[in-house]
Design a protein that fits this description.
CATH topology: Four Helix Bundle (Hemerythrin (Met), subunit A)
Low-confidence stretches: none
Number of helices: 7
Shape: globular
Distance between the termini: 23 Å
Helix content: over 70%
CATH architecture: Up-down Bundle
Number of domains: 1
Order of helices and strands: HHHHHHH
Mean pLDDT: 88
Strand content: under 5%
Structural class: mainly alpha
CATH class: Mainly Alpha
Length: 184
């Protein structure tokens, strides 16, 4: 990691955006729980701010050359927690997503956490790939659209399942990369 030429306040902005995303999770939950049938413009807007901050913090960190260990861990964690909160509430509270969505999203997250804990001590770095970034964006978009639409709208579910497919494919890519790296 090379030194940043960015002024300190600007260099701290990517991590501040990640912290903002973490702080938005309770607000999102408070707005979505009482929502009528999982339809909430306010919760959707908070969710959208989280999605945009995800893109912006990564872009700024790369652009300003201020990637940090905190950001490397906290950024994907903030995404997982926000997406997981939306899926949990849309399954358990509002019945807008099927139980399979909850099972798949949680299984993927558990495998990522377990894989991270197993591979990091061996020196393997989990770098986010294009497919993983795409999956996160598609899931953010799909969940945002689910929050904006009435429960009778099925089309956002197609986008959600596409995002889940991308996430599973990205997980497979991470696994293959890790297995190749552990043999080297």
């Amino acid at each position: 990691m090379s030194a940043s030429a960015a002024p300190a306040p600007l260099a701290a902005l990517p991590n501040a955006l990640t912290l903002l995303r973490l702080l938005l999770i309770p607000l999102f939950v408070l707005l979505l729980v009482p929502a009528d049938d999982g339809h909430s413009v306010a919760a959707a807007l908070v969710f959208a701010v989280a999605g945009v901050s995800d893109y912006l913090d990564g872009w700024l960190a790369r652009r300003l050359n201020v990637q940090s260990e905190f950001g490397r861990v906290a950024d994907p964690l903030a995404d997982r927690l926000m997406i997981d909160a939306a899926v949990v509430l849309l399954v358990l509270v509002h019945d807008r997503l099927p139980w399979a969505a909850l099972a798949i999203i949680f299984a993927r997250d558990i495998l990522l956490i377990a894989g991270y804990r197993l591979l990091m001590p061996r020196g393997y770095e989990l770098n986010v790939n294009f497919l993983g970034k795409s999956a996160t964006w598609v899931l953010y978009c799909a969940l945002f659209l689910i929050l904006l639409t009435e429960s009778s709208a099925d089309w956002p579910l197609w986008i959600f399942w596409f995002g889940v497919g991308l996430a599973l494919a990205a997980g497979g890519q991470y696994l293959l990369t890790a297995l190749r790296g552990s043999r080297a």
